[in-house]
Amino acid sequence: MSDTYVEPPKPKRTWLWIILGVFAFLFVVGISMAAFTAYWVTSNMDFVETAAPEAAKSFDEVRAKFPGQRPLIEFQDGDRSQVTTNKADTPSPVRLTTLHIIAFDDGEGRMVKVDVPFWLLRLKSGPIAFSSYASGFNDERINLSVEDIERRGPGIVLDLAHPSEGRVLIWAE
Question: What pTM was computed for the model?
Fold first, then answer.
């Protein structure tokens, strides 16, 4: 027998590789989500330089799709503080797929078109706050949810015009 000392084997540090692997995976997922979000936003937003008459024609074409229908959110005499919501009494049999938004800025002569899929809107809980998108708009008396829009079915959700600022039209299909 020999009296030589044999050093015990060092424990493997597999936990270190597992942690590094998890961080690398989360990093790749985060970068992928950021790239997908950028792609989605750029493919669903369209900026168009246009004059007021052409923009008005675009708004009129949309309104013509829903003749005689009052918007879901309606302003009395154009006053943003006097709001009426025309909610449906019975649910619509039509399943909505897209919420369309067009906005025209008079000052810049630019129109923006955005299409938001309803599956994305269905992820939102609680009412939709419009005041954060329209300056001077008081939505304290509006309690509008995605379910209210779906219950009403296809049609105009909001048609808001301000002479010196521009116009916003939101509709569901």
Answer: 0.72
- Please state, rounded to an integer, the average pLDDT across all residues of the chain: 83
What amino acid occupies position 129?
A
Instruction: Record the tokens describing residue 150, joined without a space.
Output: 């779906």
pLDDT, tens only, 35-82: 988 888 778 788 888 888 899 999 999 999 999 888 988 876 555 556
Helix (H) / strand (E) element for 46: namely strand 45-49
Tell me the three state secondary structure of residue 63.
helix
**Closest by alpha carbon to 169, among 118, 111, 117, 128?**
111
Could you tell me which residues come within 8 angstroms of residue 65 by beta carbon, excluding any fewer than 6 positions away? 171
Looking at the chain, list the stretches that DSSP marks H as alpha helix, in order from N- to C-terminal side: 14-44, 52-65, 118-121, 146-152
Instruction: Break the chain into its structural domains and give their ranges.
Output: 46-172
Q: Can you give the pLDDT at residue 86? A: 76
Burial of 44 (0-12, 13-18, 19+ CB in 10 A): middle
- Cβ–Cβ < 8 Å for 88, 151: yes
pLDDT at residue 132 above 50? Answer: no
Provide, for the chain, the percentages of residues in helix, strand and coil under a 3-state DSSP scheme, each rounded to the nearest 5.
30, 25, 40
Integer Cα distance of 108 and 104 in angstroms: 9
